[in-house]
Amino acid sequence: MQRVLWTVILTGIAGWAAGCGSVQGLLGRPEVEKPLMTGGETRFLEDASGRWGVHDVNRPAPPVVTPFTQAGKAPSDAIVLFNGTDLSQWTNPSGGPAKWVVKADYMEAVRDSGPIKTKQRFGSCQLHVEFATPARVQGRGQGRGNSGVFLQDNYEIQVLDSYDNATYPDGQCAALYGRSVPLVNVCAKPGEWQSYDIIFHRPLFDGDRVTRKATFTVLQNGVLVQDHVVLSGGTGWRGSSAISNYEAHEDKLPISLQDHGNPLRYRNIWVRELKD
Ligand code: MG
């Protein structure tokens, strides 16, 4: 009865409050906000959760997630893959212990130890990775600060020291290797921490045939570098001017980090699984 009374009162207040923001904001009661009806027909929209009138208060609200507010923290609904303490979430290529080393709050690639892979497998996902290329600059082109973030163990977002280091553009830092040049070069200086925020939708296969190609949206250091790019094929290296095609694979595969012989550092890695 009390709730009905509140609803009646708030409906009146809502009319008065038009243009003043939400009733929730006025009274701190999140369940009572109603659309400010001014007559006219109700329009309906459909999504995966059903058919809803515009501004329908019964439409399912999204879950509440605590954001990350400082370096080293993950959102509350993320799977933390590396928090600076150990490599327990990772393996070497044969499934044994990962051979990279943990120092302070980061891990570092060890030359000739091979890539490391997550024990858990993922399909479509949002991935956050922080990395630093070596502060001591050595080599040039692809030989300077090379590593890579592989989604589904197949599709490489290049990691490279591309700060004042020319190479072929489809292989510079933040390129989808051999496929897509980043929109800008927003690389920090060698040794400085950088970030990738990656939104990846996996490819779908019907037998050996790809029926939906993968898409990538990537922000490097908060700047858009790959804008919902449809990956036209694989990113594998097949020679100096060859590229690989899609090869059908499982729905979920590890995320992997490349050992390209340079002591790349990684920290604060977390992932959120996405619907396909
Ligand atoms: Mg690489």
- Parts with pLDDT < 50 across at least 5 consecutive residues: 1-29
H/E series, N to C?
Answer: HHEEEEEEEEEEEEEEEEE
Chain-averaged pLDDT = 87
Query: Quaternary state, please?
Result: single chain
- The helicity comes to under 10%
| CATH architecture classification name of the largest domain | Sandwich
Distance between the termini: 44 Å
How would you briefly describe this protein structure?
The chain is mainly β and 276 residues long. Helix content is 7%, strand content 29%. The protein folds into two domains: 52 residues, no CATH class; 195 residues, Sandwich (Jelly Rolls).
Structural write-up:
- The chain is mainly β.
- The protein has two domains: 2-53, no CATH class; 79-273, Jelly Rolls (Sandwich), CATH 2.60.120.
- The chain has helices at residues 2-16, 23-27; strands at 44-47, 50-53, 79-82, 90-91, 101-103, 106-108, 116-118, 125-132, 147-151, 155-159, 194-201, 204-206, 209-212, 215-220, 223-230, 256-257, 265-273.
- Strands 3, 5, 6, 8, 11, 14, 15 and 17 form an eight-stranded antiparallel β-sheet that branches. Strands 4-7-16-9-10 form a five-stranded antiparallel β-sheet, with no helix packed on it. Strands 1-2 form a two-stranded antiparallel sheet.
- A hairpin with a 3-residue loop joins strand 9 and strand 10 (155-159).
- The relative contact order is 0.18.
- The structure holds magnesium ion.
- Magnesium ion binds at residues 146-148, 156, 158, 258, 260.
- Magnesium ion is lined by residues 146-148, 156, 158, 258, 260.
